[in-house]
Amino acid sequence: MNISDRTLGLKMVHAQESLLDSLYAAVSQQETWEVFLRQLVNLTESRSARMLLMNQDANQVLQSVRVNIDDTYHQRYVNYYVNACPWRLELSQKTQGKLYSTYLDFSCRQDDFYKTEFFNDWAREQDIHHGVCGTVFQAGNQKVQLLIQRGRGQGHYSKAVCMLLNQFLPHVRQALKMNALQESMQTRMTIDTQQLQFNQKVLLLNEQQHVVYCSDELEKLLASCGIYIQHNQVTIKDTQQPKCLLNAIAEVSNTANAITTQEKYCQLIRPMAPPITCMIAPVYIGAKQFSFWSSPIQTAIYFYDPDKKIDINLSRLMNIFGLTEAEAKVCQSIVQGYDPQQIAEKDSRSSHTVRSQLKSIFSKLGCSKQIQLCSIILNSPAAEQKQTRLFNDTF
Questions:
Q1: pLDDT surpasses 70 at 386
Q2: CATH number listed for the domain at residues 3-181
Q3: Quick check: 37 pLDDT over 60?
Q4: Domain boundaries along the sequence of the chain
Q5: Please, what is the average pLDDT of the chain?
Q6: Are 302 and 202 in contact (CB under 8 A)?
Q7: pLDDT at 114
Q8: N or C: lower Cβ tally within 10 Å for the chain?
Q9: How far apart are CA 167 and CA 164, in angstroms?
């Protein structure tokens, strides 16, 4: 080891307890991943670091934690330059679980690196000249890559530095494994919560509008409408099917963290059968939570099949919540999948009257969203449902 390598070795020994504290705190406190990366940057006298959650082919960034990387440049990297990196293809062929020096362990020499589009259009303006990188963990079809970078004046990463970092990687893998398990449990809890609140069929999406949960029964129902789940995305193959579902999903998903997010309704047509009404609603209102492994479930789509009746006892509903008969009928219609405009049309009333009644209902039931209203009613003694519970599938 040269002097700087010896110094790094001593620094890592002295900092080991602090590193472990940050690393294992990140299991339950997602923001601590950034603290851990910053410690690595300081210890290795580097300029920046990134931890990337990637797809199986490691050519798409699904989520990231980073320090000292400009947000605009990072987005450019995610959108394009991740695949322009000269080490990307070669890294996929290297043994996982180790970090490699870009200066010593890759066929792209430094002079050649300076001629690449990646350096000239992305790395140079950030003073990124050297790095260590590697695939440090894999769970299912997702990989985690760790990258630490140095500027021109900081020198390349030696074999000794890589060895010191690699000695610490088992702790990184353990923390990531625990983090992934916790995220999986949180997803299961969210699904179970939906199961307890609703008997209707429900489709759960994450921030990228990818399907997180869909039962076999619901897939069959969607297929009857020419709608399929392919590559974890909702795909409409029936050209006669209105595109309102995809538009509503995009609109709710894109504003799911805003306080003013509204539920959206649309109807799916079926041959020789009544249409299915679906309500698209945010799961988390105004509470965007960072999760390294996956974006949290944030959009739910509830499907109301008129072939399966939901009986609401109006008299009981009025007595329990102190509703007028007109208000109870509005509640009944909401649970059956009608939006306020549809209620007004079918009951020959003005939409203004229905919305005023809905506002009064919200006040009496202590809620502010139609999805919350459905939950309260369906879990009350006023609901007389004989449907089979939906959530029996293993996630």
A1: no
A2: 3.30.450.80
A3: yes
A4: 3-181, 198-308, 311-395
A5: 84
A6: yes
A7: 95
A8: C
A9: 5
User: What's at 268, amino acid-wise?
Assistant: L
Confidence tier at 126 by pLDDT (50, 70, 90): very high
Task: Tally Cβ neighbours within 10 Å of residue 366.
Answer: 9
Contacts of 200 (CB under 8 A, 6+ apart): 302, 303, 304, 310, 390
Q: Phi, psi at residue 282, to the nearest 5°?
A: -75, 145
pLDDT of residue 384: 65
Which residue from 235, 236, 221 is spatially nearest to 270, judged by alpha carbons?
A: 221
Q: What tens digit of pLDDT does each residue of 192-203 get? A: 665 555 556 788
Distance CA 233, CA 209 (A): 7
Instruction: Write the secondary structure of the chain as one string of H (helix), E (strand) and C (coil).
Output: CCHHHHHHHHHHHHHHHHHHHHHHHCCCCCCHHHHHHHHHHHHCCCCEEEEEEECCCCCCEEEEEEECCCHHHHHHHHHHHCCCCCCHHHHHCCCCCCCEECCCCCCCCHHHHCCCHHHHHHHHHHCCCEEEEEEEEEECCEEEEEEEEECHHHCCCCHHHHHHHHHHHHHHHHHHHHHHHHHHHHHHHHHHHHHHHCCCEEEEECCCCCEEECCHHHHHHHHCCCEEEECCEEEECCCCCCCHHHHHHHHHHHCCCCCCCCCEEEEEEECCEEEEEEEEEECCCCCCCCCCCCCCCCEEEEEECCCCCCEECHHHHHHHHCCCHHHHHHHHHHHCCCCHHHHHHHCCCCHHHHHHHHHHHHHHHCCCCHHHHHHHHHCCCCEECCCCCCCCCCC
Amino acid at 80: Y
Interval 111-124: pLDDT, tens = 999 999 999 999 99
Domain 311-395 has CATH 3.30.70.2740: no
Fold equal for 198-308 and 311-395: no
Distance from C-alpha of 80 to C-alpha of 152, rounded to nearest angstrom: 24
- Domain covering 198-308 in this structure, CATH number: 3.30.450.20
